[in-house]
Specification:
By secondary structure, the protein is mainly alpha-helical. It has one domain: Farnesyl Diphosphate Synthase (Orthogonal Bundle). It contains twelve helices and four strands, in the order ααααββααααααββαα. The protein has a two-stranded antiparallel ribbon. The longest helix has 28 residues. The N and C termini lie close together (8 Å). Bound molecules: farnesyl diphosphate and magnesium ion. The site of farnesyl diphosphate has 17 residues, from helix 4, helix 8, helix 9 and helix 10.
Length: 299
């Protein structure tokens, strides 16, 4: 997986993100006690576990579409990958999904034990907010704009977004979940962080409300489309390379829709996402490519 998964167009951006993530891990190694090395090893294990970097690439692409230099938003892109990575580590724990593998390898708690896995997730979540503040390093953004990014991240990753969605995901009576309920969970559990990835650059530049709404429509449609494509991939094989066999039933679209209905909904959402940014012309090319990747993804 990695660079190829999002298409050749994103290879240079995946490298940009990976180099930035690596430089931050080296910074942690240099600046904290050697006795904390096991924690950094666990953070590195999951950060370098073969993720597609969808969320940071979305932030870089949205920034470019708005005329920002993608390199200037790397701290926020990195923060998103930290939050995404922590969520996967915690999601795999026995108390939640109890998954032994992630991306074809032992999940964090299987490799390092539950205590270290929980702490690696805690460290990634905490450092994500520290990373966001590094947006000031480029000297391109106002402190008030950076604070808006921090609020956006908290809103989409916390109780109002991903964590709230995750609560329902693990507590709902799966066999009785209706389509609106499943959609509500997916919009929060998966969609919120994807939407945040698209909206972050809109906080770092002065643009009109109509443009912000177009980015919002793109991000909302893409977030839901991504979860439908995820459920479709799950339905096509009971043992996914990326996740292994499921021990616990999950609320998902396959309970309430046939695969062909899911594909139809996926296509409608992707078309809607692409139409939402079409007024940007050539500048929307990377955002359109990402949407097309999600329409056709196999991993
Ligand atoms: C796969 O992303 C991940 C999802 C479809 C999101 C699932 C949501 C959660 C696990 C939320 C968990 C929240 C808490 C608070 C524990 P991907 O295909 O981009 O993964 P990759 O990085 O492996 O490519
Ligand atoms: Mg899970």
């Amino acid at each position: 997986m990695g660079a190829d998964a999002l298409g050749a167009f994103s290879e240079s951006r995946v490298k940009l993100v990976n180099d930035y993530l690596e430089s931050n891990l080296l910074r942690f190694e240099k600046s904290c006690s050697q006795r904390f090395e096991p924690l950094i090893e666990a953070m590195r294990y999951s950060l370098e576990g073969g993720g597609k970097r969808l969320r940071p690439i979305l932030t870089l692409s949205a920034a470019e579409a708005l005329g920002l230099n993608p390199k200037d938003v790397l701290p926020a892109a990195c923060a998103l990958e930290y939050i995404h990575t922590y969520s996967l580590i915690h999601d795999d724990l026995p108390a939640l999904d109890d998954d032994d593998t992630r991306r074809g390898k032992p999940s964090s708690h299987k490799r390092f034990g539950e205590a270290v896995a929980i702490l690696a997730g805690d460290a990634l979540l905490t450092e994500a907010f520290g990373q966001t503040l590094l947006l000031s390093e480029s000297k391109k953004f106002q402190p008030s704009q950076i604070l808006e990014v921090v609020e956006l991240l908290a809103q989409h990753a916390g109780v109002r977004g991903m964590v709230g969605g995750q609560l329902l995901d693990v507590t709902i009576n799966t066999s009785e979940a209706s389509l609106p309920e499943i959609e509500f969970i997916h919009i929060h559990k998966t969609g919120a962080l994807i939407l945040a990835s698209v909206l972050i650059p809109t906080k770092l530049i002065s643009i009109d409300e109509q443009k912000i709404q177009n980015f919002r429509r793109y991000g909302e449609a893409l977030g839901l489309a991504f979860q439908i494509s995820d459920d479709l991939l799950d339905s096509e094989t009971s043992i996914r390379y990326s996740r292994g066999p499921r021990k616990k039933p999950k609320p998902c679209y396959t309970q309430v829709m046939s695969p062909s209905e899911m594909k139809q909904k996926l296509n409608l959402l992707i078309d809607h996402a692409i139409n939402s940014v079409s007024s940007l012309g050539d500048k929307s090319k990377n955002l359109v490519d990402i949407a097309e990747f999600i329409r056709a993804r196999k991993a």
